[in-house]
Amino acid sequence: MTEQNRVAIVTGAARGIGAATAIRLAADGFAVAVIDLEEAAGKDTVEKITAAGGRAIAVGADVSNGEQVAAAVERVVAELGAPVVLVNNAGVLRDNLLFKMSESDWDTVMNVHLKGAFLMSKACQKHMVDAGYGRIVNLSSSSALGNRGQANYSAAKAGLQGFTKTLSKELGKFGITANAVAPGFIATDMTAATAERVGMGFEEFKAAAATMIPVNRVGVPDDIAHTVSFLVSEGAGFVSGQVIYVAGGPLD
Ligand code: NAP
């Protein structure tokens, strides 16, 4: 990797884990493309990066739409350069018990997490193969091990682990690693929405979660950004096809 091609794409980077990761990768020296559904939503992350002396652009794209993904990656190549790092972070929840889960709840979650990671990885890998270097990180979840009310989400997050391992096997010979980070409870708008759904205040919800976490606190987006920063570093080239649970302790 040369100084010229230190370009990273982070999807779903308007807020939460994606925003923290984009800001961290910019601090690590990457020019960062902040992809989110709406270009305007990514401006805040971009402003934080540029205020700290970094380089970033906001790009609007739905990662589950092939045409939008192709256009977004083309724009990144034109404005920042070819990406050597891709963090597939965009995500949505459509939680419900199986008997109440609609077909559209299922499809939406599969499309954003799984199809989105597939489309983005496919669009970016050719640039990484050309460079003979790349780092792909997919956001899985502790829910991949099974979680009540999340038949769709847990299936998608477990699917991303298989996807990650396959990418590591196919792309390794081109200098590309693929790993998954599986967060436990991280305080973001996503977990705040879950608190609301179960009828609890967010502070009360976080405190209850912390009692079940060995390090006695819930996670923050920077916990995940730090792990991603390691996985996309040049020195992590022999770490591939792994799933790293970042959950404040071991999981059952
Ligand atoms: P978040 O705060 O809800 O942020 C997710 C971001 O993804 C939002 O900016 C959202 O845009 C964007 N997004 C959604 N659908 C998209 C699409 N089709 N195309 C482009 N962007 C899209 O979530 P988070 O908590 O930071 O989670 C980030 C990732 O970590 C997700 O994959 C999540 O499943 C995973 N994760 C989170 C936790 C946790 O405890 N928070 C735990 C395990 C795994 P809008 O705002 O427009 O919807």
From TrEMBL:
Residues 6-184 form the Ketoreductase domain. One of its GO terms (molecular function) is oxidoreductase activity. This is 3-oxoacyl-[acyl-carrier protein] reductase. Keywords: NADP, Oxidoreductase. Belongs to the short-chain dehydrogenases/reductases (SDR) family. SUPFAM superfamilies: NAD(P)-binding Rossmann-fold domains. One of its GO terms (biological process) is monocarboxylic acid metabolic process. The keyword Cell membrane does not apply.
